[in-house]
Amino acid sequence: xxxxxxxxxxxxxxxxxxxxxxxxxxxxxxxxxxxxxxxxxxxxxxxxxxxxxxxxxxxxxxxxxxxxxxxxxxxxxxxxxxxxxxxxxxxxxxxxxxxxxxxxxxxxxxxxxxxxxxxxxxxxxxxxxxxxxxxxxxxxxxxxxxxxxxxxxxxxxxxxxxxxxxxxxxxxxxxxxxxxxxxxxxxxxxxxxxxxxxxxxxxxxxxxxxxxxxxxxxxxxxxxxxxxxxxxxxxxxxxxxxxxxxxxxxxxxxxxxxxxxxxxxxxx
Length: 268
Fold this sequence. Notes:
The protein is an alpha/beta fold and 268 residues long.
């Protein structure tokens, strides 16, 4: 199957970022419990953990007694997950074309992965296909308002960056909107009456003010491409602005950045 430029851009980006993801991004792990709750994951649940990355969701699901299978498009991410969680199953695959039979899982989750798909509608339809009747799908998506990471990064790039061309993908904050989430889930076959969405806030703690810049540069995809395309003097100005932005959230011996995300879910 041929893939579009954005799909390949994201896949190769996560292959590159996998080696530094865990040291850079502890923020996504803060929403795992609420994600699993929304998908009704419990002991004995057969869970498909889409866009599994280094295995945070699968690890937490297994601690509940669930039986997770993690899937990621980046082979390097799957390798990291296997190293972190040697007793669990992880496979390389595309969330938009799943290698599983119909009605294979009781629950499906995607922790911020929907933001990185070229065809999210296809992934939702595939999640619906592999769920048993009554099974739930849940996913997380970032909100821009009140999200310190987004505000710091966006302001720094807007003030000091030059335009960098990257493959065009879906709008990053598309699924922060409840109406958009519900409509897209219903179009994929999910029961509209079962739709639920909650707003979850968390605080991401970092010991140093420059970790955010390092994470965006070395362990991301879209923003990383923009940063890597900057002239040296522009990149240094962005670094300084982002570091100053993090310093505004000093808290004790570190920094606490407020985050906001939506947790959306629906049943078959």
